[in-house]
Amino acid sequence: MPVTGCEAYQAASIGLLVALPGLAMAMVADRVPPNPLLGFRVGYAYTSRRAWAAANRAAGLGLAALGLASALVGLAGGVVAEALFLLVASLPLLAGLVAYAERVAERSLLSEPAPPGPPSSGIPGPRCPVAAAGVPLAALGLGVAAAARLIAEGLPLTALVVGSSPLVAVYTAWLAFTSPGAYYRPWLGPRGSSLLACLVPLSAGLATMAPGLAVLGPGWAGLLAAAAGLAVALAAATVAVRGFSGSRGARGAARR
């Protein structure tokens, strides 16, 4: 079906809403200092002012390109096609930006003179318990089951949205284990960053469970809510025990 004038206007508006903030971010990347509120706040960007500017410039340009590309897709295929494109293309873009920020941070650390004293390990990596991956994986399984039902009912586009949305939560969990420095925040410290690296996959997994639960009905809700609650409890307990053990070890070393 050809795209109507109203759909074309909506597609262009959505694309501009994505592209314009990206262009603004790229333009002010050198002027806005590292902060906890504005910008591409990946942990690697906090290693230096130069790393922050480079990561935010790349993120802004990537967001602008994503917005313009989504507008072209929407003008050609409609708003639904544009929404699917944004959903599918956002995750690879985010993964590429995080990897780029990590490389920029490494170059920044290598180019700076080493401080006096023992060698530094660079970016502290928060350690996330394995339980934090349980909720994203449960959300992925729920999404696959819901997508299968939607395909059987003749709704393939809706199935694609419901089935692929938990991939964002799975990526946040994968990032916590493979690139934990992405969650580091200087004002939180190692322990607070470790807690953040656990809470982000948990919250993303719980959020992406909603579409699957809406499709499959309340029968799945109780089981998955119990599993999510158990995973949250295990993750919180593991972080608390690690933090308590670390503080006890530090106090013991200070006494000796």
Secondary structure elements and pairings:
Blueprint: H1 5-27, H2 49-77, H3 79-111, H4 134-152, H5 156-164, H6 166-178, H7 189-216, H8 218-255
Helix pairs in contact: 1-2, 2-3, 4-5, 4-6, 4-7, 4-8, 6-7, 7-8
What would you say this structure looks like, in words?
The termini are far apart. The model is unreliable at 114-122 and 244-256 (pLDDT under 50). The chain has helices at 5-27, 49-77, 79-111, 134-152, 156-164, 166-178, 189-216, 218-255. Helix 2 packs antiparallel against helix 3, helix 4 runs antiparallel to helix 6 (166-178) and helix 7 (189-216) runs antiparallel to helix 8 (218-255). The protein contains eight helices and no strands. It has two domains: 1-112, no CATH class; 126-248. The protein is mainly α. Helix content is 75%, strand content 0%. It is flat, with a radius of gyration of 21 Å.
Keywords:
flat; 8 helices; single chain; 256 residues; mainly alpha
Report Rg: 21 Å
Shape: flat
Low-pLDDT parts are 114-122, 244-256
Number of domains: 2
What letter string, H or E per element, gives the SSE order?
Answer: HHHHHHHH
Determine the number of helices (DSSP H or I, runs of at least 4 residues): 8
Helix content: over 70%
Amino-to-carboxy terminus distance: 77 Å
Q: What does the average pLDDT come to?
A: 80
Structural class, from secondary structure content? mainly alpha
Quantity of strands, as a count? 0
Strand residue percentage: under 5%
Largest sheet: none
